[in-house]
Amino acid sequence: MRFFYLITGLLLWQMSTAQQNTPALSDEFVLVIHGGAGTILKKNMTPEKEKAYNDALEMALKIGYDTLKKGGTALDAVEMAVRYMEDCPLFNAGKGAVFTNEGKNELDAAIMNGKTLAAGSIAGVTTIKNPISTARAVMEKSNHVMLIGKGAEKFAAENHQTIVDPSYFFTEQRWEALQDAKREDSLKQTQKTPDHLALKQPENRDYKYGTVGAVALDRYGNLAAATSTGGMTNKKFGRVGDAPIIGAGTYANNKTCAISCTGWGEYFIRLTMAKTISDMMEFGNWKLTDATNEMVMKRLPALGGDGGLIALDKDGNITLPFCTEGMYRGFVRQDGKTTVKIYKE
């Protein structure tokens, strides 16, 4: 009988310990997404195109929301939301990626786990259908943080990622944008007058924009961030922007926030945008809104850049600042009510 009580007590202790080690599910969770920033004006948007963007943003939110509602992790949610946008030709990521000067589509992506600070990214790939999933594989199945080019593609193939022919990424709209950018470059090259006398052509900054991203807070209290992009139209020399650089265009830390950026990447890199905001919160006790506004609305334009970001803190507070004419964006909380916006308010 004494042995029976001993075994029973041991089993009860093990059950109690297991319950203590199982994270309690919260009723609260949040997902925020963006589809890029730039000169997005209602007067230039047809009703059909506006509806297409709104529907695509709604679907990305729904996919991420369903993942979180079922108890999926923030990592799962941001990956699935970004995967959908990579497959949608409306956005400059995956299927809708812009073309380089050489007429190629070079893709970058990054993902980060706010709980562990684990991160994975890839850059300059041309055959990976969903770069965000490969970035996650780099994080979880390698000893590295960033892989580039052919090496990243070899890693993707060995880890059962979907590989496609580069022609998969071709879209007529992005091809025409490349031709427009090349014509602008050609026009600038024909100007022989001194710089101070030359007619200055307005630079089309939209060629430098286009990213998709997601940040999430899951029911376990963990944050995650993901960003994916086709980069800059007409880019040369293997250029890489901020999206796949941890701390610049993508960052997540459970102590502070999760951030995904979009805009002129060179300036986001120089500001170490995402990590700087996190540090302002952790070491300077800044609030999320104050820190993001300081960086996006003041320091970014002061340096000569522009763009925006989505940010979510550990308490579920959201902010979506941008200093361009518009930014495709949206969010959803545990009640399932989605909010999608495109233009400045």
Structural commentary:
This protein has 345 residues and is α+β, with helices and mostly antiparallel strands. It has a single domain, classed as Glutamine Phosphoribosylpyrophosphate, subunit 1, domain 1, CATH 3.60.20.30. The protein is 38% helix and 21% strand. It is built from nine helices and twelve strands. The chain has an eight-stranded mixed sheet with strand order 4-3-2-6-5-1-11-12. A hairpin with a 5-residue loop joins strand 5 and strand 6. Helix 3 runs antiparallel to helix 4. The longest helix is centred in the first third of the chain and has 23 residues. It is globular. About 6% of the residues have low confidence.
Q: What is the structure about, briefly put?
A:
The chain has 345 residues and is α+β, with helices and mostly antiparallel strands. 38% of the residues lie in helices and 21% in strands. It has helices at residues 2-21, 47-69, 74-87, 131-141, 149-158, 172-189, 265-270, 273-284, 288-303, and strands at residues 30-38, 107-113, 119-125, 146-148, 212-217, 223-229, 250-252, 257-263, 307-313, 318-319, 326-333, 338-343.
Features:
Glutamine Phosphoribosylpyrophosphate, subunit 1, domain 1, eight-stranded mixed beta sheet, 9 helices, globular
How much of the sequence lies in strands comes to 15-25%
Number of strands: 12
Total of helices: 9
CATH topology: Glutamine Phosphoribosylpyrophosphate, subunit 1, domain 1
What is the top-level CATH class? Answer: Alpha Beta
The outline comes out as globular
For the record, the CATH architecture stands as: 4-Layer Sandwich
Rg from alpha-carbon coordinates: 22 Å
Distance between the ends: 74 Å
Average pLDDT metric:
90
